[in-house]
Amino acid sequence: MVLKLVIFGSGRGSNFEAIQQSIENRKLNAEIQAIVVDNPNAKMIEKARNKKLDVIIVDKNQFSNREEQEKEIIKKLEKYDYDLIALAGYMRILSSKFIEEIKHPIINIHPALLPSFPGLHAQRQALDAGVKISGCTVHIVDESVDGGKILGQKAVEIQDNDTEDSLSDRILVYEHILYSEILNKIEKGIIDLNK
Ligand code: GRF
């Protein structure tokens, strides 16, 4: 069964592109129904429009608070038929009200081996802590910050001369592989999000 996705992002959109590529290459049996972006300058918007995908822009600066913005997202998503929301660089924490009301599972990708280094600047946190291995994690989104059930991870070795940028670049390569792998397992029923 085709896995119907809505992807949320705020910026560059490389994880979105990697998922889109996996679909185009028939490595992932999925369809992207819409893209939700909270930043009108996000590069992801043009990338999605080039693929003729529906783009929903909910500029966070146009709403008095997060609740109003989330209400608008819920309203705009009503007409779409989808199974799952995949956060890909979406920079705003979703409220528990939103998570409850949306009635579909939500997953996220994070550039560290959770539960280590949740939140912002995960790659810098790993360097500051002096760990020798970091990586990326796909997890279920719940009301905690990057604390939901872990669905899959990939490890990346940290090198002595790594900077935040070099480490981020190397982790990103694995993010792109991991996200499609996990979505594929969800589509095939190997991962059951309800358990
Ligand atoms: C990725 O590193 C992701 O793990 C983090 O934000 C970044 C988004 O990159 N949550 P992109 O927009 O997918 O290129």
Descriptive tags:
195 residues; 7-stranded mixed beta sheet; binds 5-O-phosphono-beta-D-ribofuranosylamine; alpha/beta; 6 helices
Q: Provide the helix percentage.
A: 25-40%
Q: Would you tell me the structural class of the helices and strands? A: alpha/beta
Output the number of helix runs.
6
Gyration radius from CA atoms, angstroms: 16 Å
How many individual β-strands?
7
Task: Write down the secondary-structure element order.
Answer: EHEHEHEHEHEEH
What can be said about the biggest beta sheet? 7 strands, mixed
Strand order of the largest sheet: 3-2-1-4-5-6-7
| Distance, first to last CA | 19 Å
Into which percentage range does the β-strand content fall?
15-25%
CA-based shape: globular
Ligand names: 5-O-phosphono-beta-D-ribofuranosylamine
Low-confidence stretches: none
Overall pLDDT metric: 97
Describe the protein:
The chain is an alpha/beta fold and 195 residues long. Helix content is 36%, strand content 22%. It has helices spanning 14-24, 43-50, 66-77, 96-102, 122-129, 164-187, and strands spanning 3-9, 30-37, 55-57, 84-87, 106-110, 133-140, 150-157. A seven-stranded mixed sheet has the order 3-2-1-4-5-6-7, with helices on both faces. β4, α4 (96-102) and β5 (106-110) form a beta-alpha-beta unit. α1 runs parallel beside α6. The longest helix is centred in the C-terminal third of the chain and has 24 residues, at 164-187. The mean pLDDT is 97. 5-O-phosphono-beta-D-ribofuranosylamine (GRF) is lined by residues 9, 11-15, 88-89, 109-111, 172, 175. Residues 9, 11-15, 88-89, 109-111, 172, 175 line the site of 5-O-phosphono-beta-D-ribofuranosylamine.
